[in-house]
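Known limitations

Files may contain more than one protein. Parsers should not assume a single record per file. Below, a two-record file is shown to illustrate correct handling: read the sequence, read the token line, then continue until end of file.
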Amino acid sequence: MSEQWWEIKVNHLPELEETISWRLQEFGCRGTAVLKEDDELCIKGYVPSVTIAPLDLSALTLWLQQDFTLAGVDLPQVSWRLINNEDWSSSWKQHWQPMEIGERFLVYPAWFEPEARGARLIIRLDPGSAFGTGVHATTQLCLESLEMRLDDNENSDITIADIGCGSGILSIGAHLLGSKKVIATDVDALAVKATKENSALNHIDDITVFQGSLGEVKEKYGQIFDGVVCNILAEVIKILIPDFASIVKEGGWIALSGILVEQSAEISDLLVEYGWTVATVWKKDNWCCINARRLPSNMRGM
């Protein structure tokens, strides 16, 4: 008998996407997918049925209702159903189609045969349970930031770190834009696995991937990076900001996303406090990407 999973579906407003994703992860969901069904946004999460009872699902609904009440919005529509193990990881695939991102990228699901579209760089992905399909606004913003920072004709000496690599989409994007060296890391073993598999899917064998976070990157590599991309929760980014300078060269840059527009001022102020200058804040669908540069030591505090 195949293992069964609970598929939990939450209809939502864009501004509560981060809250719902966090809540589902805290609940124990092994994977989440952001989808658009019947012109409505929804998030689906998947958790093994052996670990969760219907009473737990009722409690989750209550917690989500409390989150929405605190946010001052209408209560969410929450539903769930049992699906078989072989169905859970593919049930969302029918909603994901090839997507052009920015000026350079074309993201293709692994189960599609890619078709060339002009000079676009093709990224093939099967994210599994890892975050990063290209559908989410934060992923798009980070890829567009890489486009701005990298020119595939002039990056033979550029070294990039991808902190919280998820599916590996940003690492692959940096490589395709010509970065000499890409280091990808994530605290989630499934994300590390997904990044390795997606690198192979794109015939890339020189992205270094390991399980860990910024501290492990600092310990292994030190202050060698010209740029860092980090697309994770804003609360985690706030914890990491004091240490970003420990891995980024003076004059280097960071692109931070997973940040709601209303959180951008707090994150920007914290960056300035720790010796960064905020160059741009790009916005899309209530989310933003903060692009900042590390000030040389003789310019800090000026």
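...continuing to the second record:
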Amino acid sequence: MLFDLKPKSRREEIFDREREFRELEKSIGRYPLTLLLGIRRVGKSSILRAYLNENPGILIDCRELYAESGHITKDDLIRELQSKGSIFQRIASRFRVKLNLRFLHIEPRDASLREIFRELNELGEKTGKFIIAFDEAQYLRFYGSRGGKELLALFAHAYDSLPNLRIILTGSEVGLLHDFLGIDDYESPLYGRVGGEIYVKPFDGETSKAFLRAGFKEAGVEVPEEDIDKAVSILDGIPGWLVLFGSKYLETQDFQRAMDSTLNISKGLLLGELSELERRSRRYVGILKAISLGYNRWSLIRDYLELKKMRTPEPRLYELLKNLKKMGWIEEENGEYYLTDPFAKLALR
């Protein structure tokens, strides 16, 4: 169902993303490395899960790995790969090939990621290709003791020498992911290795309305057009919030109760993300609060921070704003900054 809150894993469960699927298929055919990019809750993970449901591959949730300890080790990553044993078995059964993955049967400390990638490349030779997908891949910069450089070297090796292996990286903190990969940085192991990039954007107004209509029709519920119009004006095309609202409307059969519940849940999720952001620097949240209150130009943000006893030198403020753009929290247009998520303003009150 379109309004199912669980992650989508089939193409038919995903609304109006045919272009993204076509571009992903084209990129996988052309490049060893593909980036699937977009802001939070826009549907990247669902697109990726559905694609992997149709093609041989596995998905690693990097944010989950990072959340366990605040860093990612080689053993963490190998254990996660080993936990996909049942998926490997299903792939082998589907393609009627013999599974010979030695790394599944040894201790993580004795395993080599490079050797694992070689084994998966051999599997890809039998299945046509094999995909290793890393969701929220910007968290891989917390791998090891060198900011993930060992992984980048491994990706470069796969790019150059493992023709049956495809790597997909998703990222909601787009700028941070680009910085981590360093494709344009001559000091990065991935320097000069061109990959495909697919941007998943929020729905426009008409597509958002069509999505809600389709979801309610699927559930056999008639909803006044004015309720759909009001919902779209508030939710602003972000599929994650549209799904949540649709689910709550089916539950309550009342616009205001459904919207209130959507706002409360979204606020809780965003508060958790803001808390993580504040641990990096409380000025990040100060800047977001300034923008949410309408202090959306550089000088106004500077003055707001000073008023709140967070005086910030000009070079540092430029850096903080640049980082917030890279993390996908804000965008800039004609010298004005605005929040990318319409509900962030609610959480910042």
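Parsers that stop after the first record will miss the second one. For reference, the second record is described as follows. The mean pLDDT is 95.
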